[in-house]
Design brief:
317 residues; alpha/beta; 2 domains; 6-stranded parallel β-sheet; 11 helices; globular
Length: 317
């Protein structure tokens, strides 16, 4: 009977019913799994499910029975793909499940920062509005989205969905070409992209080409002091450089749903500015609407059943 182990059940909300595969199987799941627990927990397992637990070569070489890894996410940087390919382990991910959840979160961050909601909420709580004696209280500049330029890095399903929402608010939308590549009919050269954007949002994978994609040099080219939104992966942005850019007013706001590592350590530079009115940090929940998590899990189970039936879907190896 096929043994299936889910290494990090706690990465799916507790309200979500986790249906099981149709094929006969033996099931085990754990709320979380540390790196030194991976091998023991996957002994004898043919199928592993992981969201954020890394499966590296050092683990895989001790797991001769492992045949299939179901990544309960779109990003698969936690998996050593080369080692899996060498060992004949099939890897599959999930796709498109958060095509509404993430874009809505992105727009919420943009709106909150451009409308100065964190600052005004704090002003009301502190009593500043009441003490002002005025029917309204002007303590933070407010900007409309209409007429602003939204720059998107990553043109996949989520990036395209963000574009459609932004256009509904009257924003001009531009997509960035890859660094070092020429502009095309649909992509703006990277330096021009940085200079023209009033808001920048990242929707690309984290890999060797994109790690540190936005750093000190890139911040220096952001002529319009944009709001920077990151709901993709923490490693895409140099967090020290981001904090410095905010202090130097190269950017006007930060809305991050991801950090390096996760959760952030107490000395993470972003934590030092988390209480500022132009900074919003959320705990990697942009993807996590009930609808999106339900759709994600349906794909995981579909993928497992398809693999057992000999017709794997959404394979990466």
């Amino acid at each position: 009977m096929t043994r299936i182990v889910f290494l990090d059940r706690a990465t799916i909300g507790p309200t979500i019913n986790l249906a099981r595969p149709n094929a006969p199987h033996e099931w085990a799941d754990y709320p979380t799994t540390s790196s030194d627990q991976v091998v023991a927990r996957l002994q004898g397992a043919e199928i592993a499910i992981t969201n954020k637990v890394p499966l590296r070569r050092k683990h895989l070489e001790h797991l001769p029975d492992l045949k299939f890894i179901a990544v309960a996410a779109t990003g698969y940087d936690v998996i050593d793909i080369d080692a899996c390919r060498e060992r004949g382990i099939t890897v599959s991910n999930v796709r498109g499940y958060a095509v509404h959840s993430v874009p809505e979160h992105v727009m919420a961050l943009i709106l909150a920062l451009k409308r100065q909601l964190p600052g005004y909420r704090e002003d009301v709580i502190k009593g500043d509005w009441a003490r002002s004696g005025q029917f309204c209280f002007f303590n933070h500049p407010i900007e409309d989205l209409a007429g602003k330029t939204l720059g998107i890095i990553g043109g996949g399903s989520i990036g395209q969905s963000v574009a459609r929402l932004a256009q509904a608010f009257g924003m001009r939308v531009i997509f960035a070409a890859r660094k070092g590549e020429a502009a095309t009919s649909t992509r703006i050269g990277f330096d021009d992209f940085l200079a023209e954007s009033d808001v920048i949002t990242l929707h690309c994978p984290l890999n060797a080409e994109t790690i540190g994609l936005i750093g000190a040099e890139e911040f220096s080219k952001m002529a319009r002091r944009p709001v920077l939104i990151n709901t993709a992966r923490g490693g895409l942005v140099d967090e020290v450089a981001a904090v410095n850019a905010l202090k130097r007013k190269n950017i006007s706001g930060i809305g991050f749903d991801v950090t390096t590592p996760e959760p952030p350590l107490p000395d993470n530079p972003l934590m030092g500015i988390a209480d500022l009115p132009n900074v919003i940090l959320t705990p990697h929940v942009a993807w996590a609407s009930d609808e999106a998590m339900t759709a994600l899990w349906a794909q995981v189970i579909e993928g497992i059943d398809a693999f057992i039936a000999g017709t794997p879907k959404r394979i990466l190896t």
